[in-house]
Amino acid sequence: MSSQMVSEIPVIDFMDENLKPGTETWFSAGQVMRSALEANGCFYAMSNKVSTELHNSVLSLMKELFDLPLEIKTQKTSDKPYHSYYGQIPMHPLYESVGIDFDGPVNKEAIQKYANVMWSTGYDHFCESINLYAKLLEEMDQTAKRLLFDAYDLDKRHCDSLLESTSYMIRSFKYLVPHDNEDNLGLRAHTDVTYFTILHQNSVTGLQVKLKTGEWIDSDPSPSMFLILAGDALKVWSNDRIKACEHKIVIKEKKERCSMGLFSFNNKMVQTQEELIDEDHPKRYKSFDHYEYVAFHSKFPSQISSFLLV
Ligand SMILES: O=C(O)CCC(=O)C(=O)O
Ligand SMILES: [Fe+2]
Fold first, then answer.
1. Which ligand is nearest to the CA of 95?
2. CA-based torsion, 195, 141, 134, 253: positive or negative
3. Tag placement on the chain: N or C end, fewer CB within 10 Å?
């Protein structure tokens, strides 16, 4: 199964036909995932379910979106912070991103609503392709969560209930090539506010993750590699067993970098899983509304411990 590693990060083969609950393959993939998340907060899912044709089509549709006039693409399309356009940030001049909020499971209606704002007459091809693509990433997110709950030997119903209250957002990121004397930092080091973030790059390097040793490593941008990062909500859920993965973007190639991401949230409360609280791991975090956390994070990023800690 997953003997492969890229740097320190294990690769889990999501295409393995034996990757089914109850099999030995499932069990060992879960253990690999759990130790990777506990060590460095991330792992790779390897999959060719997104065809080259679909990946290229999504990237070129997103390019069309980024090429729209600024006053069009910057329109607010969700009331939630970090869920619409994000860019034109003086500290991050190379960076721009757009988000489509599904406000629940991935669904085509949300993409149509979004496309109607951007193109006024909608855009069928955009809606079809993004829906197909986001559904494949949603499936990957759900498999990863099922593997994880099994790896902690938790009742399946706990995972069912998390998946039922999961809300997704798809984002696309674009980075300009820096000028010769310009700083090449695309996006500063941070952790995400999510449970999982699945990142899928356009073969241009740039995404780096911080290992537990403190070392920053480049990620593999190949099209069959999906880097799955643990966010703050998963850290809280696991009672600090899992690390939220610190990552950043550094633009080293003279090529435009694009990337896609599926972000998972909870439309109910983020809570520590009770079975993961014991004498050695006393409860560290409060329970909270995920979107209240997102709002707090967007206003007071330096004070998040006061929001999270018991
Ligand atoms: O550009 C990317 O691949 C990831 C961007 C990112 O980390 C974020 O927006 O949270
Ligand atoms: Fe991020």
1. 1
2. positive
3. C
